[in-house]
Amino acid sequence: MKKYLILLFTVLTSLHVSAKSDGSQLWLGKQYANSCQVISQLPDDATAKIAKLELENNWRGKNVELKIDKALNLGEGYNIYARPAQQGDNIQYEATITASNPIGLLYGAYELIRLQNTDAYNTGSGNQQNFSKAIDETEKPQVGLRILNHWDNLDGSIERGYAGKSIFKWEEIKLGKNGKGGSISKSLHDRLITYARANASLGINGSVLNNVNASPKMMTAEYINKVKVIANILRPYGIRVYLSINFASPMALGYTKTADPLDKKVQQWWKKKAKEIYAAIPDFGGFLVKANSEGQPGPGDYQRTHAEGANMLADAVKPYGGIIMWRSFVYGANHKGEDRVKQAVSEFKGMDGKFRDNVILQSKNGPLDFQPREPYAPIFDNIRQTPQIAELQITQEYLGQSKHLTYLAPMWKEFFGFVNPSKLVGISGVANIGNDANWCGHPFSQANWYAFGRLAWNPSLTAEEIAHEWLVQTYENQDEKFTKPVEMMMMTSREACVNYMMPLGLHHIFKFDHHYGPEPDGFIASYPLEWCPVYYHKADAKGIGFDRSSKGTDAVGQYPEPYRSQYDNIETCPEEYLLWFHHVAWNYKMKSGSTLWQELCMKYNMGVAMVEVYRDFWHTSAKQYMKGHEQEWQHTDSLLNVQLENAKEWRETCLKYFQTFSKMDIQ
Ligand code: GCU
Prior knowledge:
Structural class: alpha/beta
Number of domains: 3
CATH architecture of the largest domain: Alpha-Beta Barrel
Strand content: 5-15%
Low-confidence stretches: 1-18, 120-131
Keywords: Hydrolase, Signal
Helix content: 25-40%
CATH class of the largest domain: Alpha Beta
Mean pLDDT: 93
CATH topology of the largest domain: TIM Barrel
Protein name: Alpha-glucuronidase
Signal peptide: 1-19
Bound molecules: alpha-D-glucopyranuronic acid
InterPro entries: A-glucoronidase_C_sf, GH, Glyco_hydro_67_C, Glyco_hydro_67_cat, Hex-like_dom2
Domain Glycosyl hydrolase family 67 catalytic: 128-418
Radius of gyration: 26 Å
Shape: globular
CATH superfamily of the largest domain: Glycosidases
């Protein structure tokens, strides 16, 4: 249906008013001055005004009507009805967007523009018979909370950020004499508007502005008043602001002697703090909390449970409709010695049902830590009464950072194949956004921001569809000689990364701390064992892999059937998870007939070969299709060379090291 939206006549006559080839426009594309007339039922509403403006600037049809119909109960969704209309010799589209509220109108406006900029191009010229078709599309988001998590520190640095410093430049927000009011630099304001447009164009409706390893300073009046300035900018785009908190804030700021959640003074402090925040930001979303994890303070410091800690905060924000997103990423503290991937379930299972109704448990997609491939995290099965958010990582901490072309939608779709998104109340993504001109570092890393938003809105979209949408909107070229191979490159890139970094279920064999290159021999006695690569691959003379079967740590026991039995048995365990769940002999016969060692060599070789193909295609064939985007072509071209060198380094380092155990020839 979508492909019928063809507006060729107006494409040819539109006046192109702005273009930049540094990637700063994201997928939002060029703007066109045109004669589109927008009639809005809500002329004074800030959000509806943006919808009108976006259509006036970007839609090349004739008339659009923006209508509100509360009775339709569309939530944040919309209906688009677009039909062809004759105008002299030309045919143009007229459209009606109906929604139950202004944000639905805005989402509908972005969808109409997306239909135009993707399928119109996709269809190419000709195809006249399709001009007579109408579009009638109703969409509603599948999950309510679609949130970016920024790991941005107040000093402008970003934990695991690879695209420059934070876009939230706190020093460029100046408060008035009484600490209130606030003015913002024009450049910061403009940047935030583009940020808001980009998010709203995907349906992202929340943003956690600061790092989960949070500074207590975030809770000071000064920062709350600055957050208010940002919240005011994001609000008309349907984006609510949330904050990460340091659990010990009242104590760290000198107001209380402890941060014990059962201490009345501590409870009072948080209640007052919530009141202060909501007075400044009435639609404030709530808090994201990393507690008793990797050195962060938490209720465990006072022998209280995570539930007691979360509930204390939940009570503080409850009167204002706020939520607490409590992270399950905890290990070490209460479960020393237990297999790290089991610890979240061990810690939280017994607490299910003990949380207030405005507490949501937020868990990473895999049980370890955003590896290139992990089995899904069984916490999503083990917690039944507490609402859950899945936390995905858009920033490529373990997938080549901003140097490798790694399209993540296939990985997230793999996860949704195990965890049904309809059971989640939200989907969060650790942002890859920074102050680089092109926002995300690698030109193709923008596709991961895009894909996160689109999947959070509609997890049943395919990774291919999303790659296509992003590509044709970003590079404004629909020629299949360009789109097909580039989409193929995107679609296979995550598997390539798994192959050249850690195939067959290997995991966490990265260099300490920066998590970029390989260090399979990594071991530092003074570090927790769970940070050392040798803990994860367990290579020895017999074989390689972590025995998590029922004979090993029994991590398989946390999975429901049929996965439990399937993963437990070395014969039925999918080979992509083999070394995750089993310690396997070097000469074990794989399905291909090769030995494990041969298969390992083959996978590493394959990973390198795939990157070689990407690099060659890009270098020899892509440029001619990227007129106006030469800078981005060049950038990707040089990064693909880096990626290839890195892939070779991974292969060499890992195979040579593992060979010291296998004693077999590298093939
Ligand atoms: C990873 C990451 C840390 C981050 C942590 C978290 O371990 O390397 O930088 O703080 O995850 O998600 O809390």
